[in-house]
Amino acid sequence: MHDKPSGAGDESATTTAQQDHRDQATVFRHVLSIYPEVLTQDELIREMTGGASSPGFVERDRIERAVRDLIAGGLLHGDAMLILPTRAAVLCHSILDA
């Protein structure tokens, strides 16, 4: 499933796994860019969709899946619906930014 191109016959088509990784990177960069400020998942979605009061299902789903996968990977905490980076993620980000 994750290795199927999302645009059949298109040379620049990406697989769903590649799109998932891009979405995760976008969410992760956003969360790190506002740290130590924290957001709820709804606030994060609103910010990442340009302030849309009710973003479309596809946009919302992509962000929610990225958050879920980043939590599962140990890069984000999703405690009580607040989304924030783990200590290891913040440390890694500060080392790589130096």
Largest sheet: 3 strands, antiparallel
Order of helices and strands: HEHHEEH
Find the count of extended strands (DSSP E, 2+ residues): 3
Q: Estimate nothing, just give the exact number of structural domains.
A: 1
Count, helices: 4
Helix content: 55-70%
Radius of gyration: 15 Å
CATH homologous superfamily - what is it?
Winged helix-like DNA-binding domain superfamily/Winged helix DNA-binding domain
Notes on the structure:
This protein has a three-stranded antiparallel sheet. The chain has helices at residues 16-34, 41-48, 57-72, 87-97, and strands at residues 39-40, 76-77, 82-85. The mean pLDDT is 87. The chain has one domain: Arc Repressor Mutant, subunit A (Orthogonal Bundle), CATH 1.10.10.10. Helix 1 (16-34) packs across helix 3 and helix 2 packs across helix 3 (57-72). It is built from four helices and three strands; from the N terminus they run αβααββα. The protein is mainly alpha-helical and 98 residues long. The protein is globular and about 35 Å long.
SSE diagram, text form:
Layout: H1 16-34, E1 39-40, H2 41-48, H3 57-72, E2 76-77, E3 82-85, H4 87-97
Antiparallel strand pairs: 1-3, 2-3
Please summarize what this structure is.
This protein has 98 residues and is mostly helical. It has one domain (16-97): Arc Repressor Mutant, subunit A (Orthogonal Bundle), CATH 1.10.10. It has helices spanning 16-34, 41-48, 57-72, 87-97; strands at 39-40, 76-77, 82-85.
Provide keyphrases for this structure.
98 residues; single chain; 4 helices; Arc Repressor Mutant, subunit A; mainly alpha; three-stranded antiparallel beta sheet
